[in-house]
Amino acid sequence: MKKVQPYIRLMRPHHYIKNLFIFLPLFFSGRMTERAFALRTLPGFLAFCLVSSMVYIYNDIMDIESDRKHSVKCGRPLASGAAKEKYARILAGVLLCVSIALQAAAGRAGPLSWLYLTAYLLINIAYSRRLKHVAVLDVAILAAGFLLRLAYGAALTGIAVSGWLFLTVTAMSFYMGLGKRRGELIRQKEIRQVLISYNQGFLEKSMNMCLTLTVAFYALWAAENGRPAAGGFRSGGLLWTVPLVLLICLKYSLDLEGDSDGDPVEVVLHDKILCALALLLALIVSLLLYF
């Protein structure tokens, strides 16, 4: 088991939480309980998880030497020697083959889901090889990962994504990407080449802009979906979730100001209050949309 653990860590399964964005089009459409849509989305989710793991493995292979010089990343499986590069490459190939099989089961809705999954893979390979060193473009690619998840989920089900929801995810994704760079700039400037092109003032101003837009776009989505429904105001309460979203954003921002490197997954998973607020929001929206 000890020999397997480094390769499991290499896959970074805790980052699968980001792939929940795939379910957003289905969830917000109010059709999450329909079996046909669930059967398409679940294997697609698994396929995306495996592709994202393959991307992480590829990135770690590319960064072995730089990670060994890093005070924290030197503990990663490949940099520390706990995992062998040869076996890591084999694992990446296996993950790709299994993800293709899962995608074949999920992708009956049309070629768009294949396109988005392939785009995610190719963009992230390009990011690992070169584009992560290009200022602003690197943050745009981080944001594009979330948008491709959203579009992929929509393609699997054939459910259109609301314009306001798309803009909300866009602004939020840029905010998280900029926050990640800010954390890296403050704590490890000597390592990441692209950080030379950034300064703290630019990142914080851009983060404030994106955070404001996130809340504004979500409020507009809630208002649009809070119109009177037949027989009453079933979804009218969505507008009342805006203060909770604002509270979540404030708590996330406070975490970024603390002892955090800005990685969205690490921020969320290490803050129990933030997790509780997010679960509360999901519960309230579920009650308003489905009951």
Note the main sheet.
Answer: none
Query: What separation lies between the terminal Cα atoms?
Result: 45 Å
Poorly predicted segments: 228-234
Domains (count): 2
Q: Rg from C-alpha positions?
A: 20 Å
Number of strands: 0
Structural class: mainly alpha
CATH architecture field of the largest domain? Orthogonal Bundle
H/E element order: HHHHHHHHHHHHH
Overall average pLDDT? 89
Q: Approximately how much helix is present in the residues? A: 55-70%
Mind telling me the CATH class of the largest domain?
Answer: Mainly Alpha
Number of helices: 13
| Estimated share of beta-strand residues | under 5%
Relevant CATH superfamily of the largest domain: UbiA prenyltransferase
**Overall form:** globular
Looking at the structure, the CATH topology of the largest domain is: Tetracycline Repressor, domain 2
Give a short synopsis of this structure.
The protein is built from 13 helices and no strands.
